[in-house]
Amino acid sequence: xxxxxxxxxxxxxxxxxxxxxxxxxxxxxxxxxxxxxxxxxxxxxxxxxxxxxxxxxxxxxxxxxxxxxxxxxxxxxxxxxxxxxxxxxxxxxxxxxxxxxxxxxxxxxxxxxxxxxxxx
Length: 120
What we know:
The chain is of the alpha+beta class and about 120 residues long. The chain has one domain: Riboflavin kinase-like (Elongation Factor Tu (Ef-tu), domain 3, Beta Barrel), CATH 2.40.30.30. About 20% of the residues lie in helices and about 40% in strands. A six-stranded antiparallel beta barrel has the order 1-2-5-4-3-6. The protein is globular, with a radius of gyration of 13 Å. The mean pLDDT is about 90.
């Protein structure tokens, strides 16, 4: 759970706007990677895909951050408190050779998460 903060907005440019939530240093977190998730925003639950990690393709040496893309959410969430629940691990964090390769993987990951929700 945390407050949505501004990020680089790269995911938005790639078609997957994310809510960026800073992870407090003293919090225990699951392994870096991509997860099936749900998020609670303003009392409403959304299906989502989440990433925990340092974003190695586009950043160097940053603290882990939680990024969450909510399906069917199109509002401004900056400053809102969001509760995220992780349901299933999809894959570990990976550094890609290009933003284009990252986008291809994001498309695949989103398809996997949507399939998970359709089957569960």
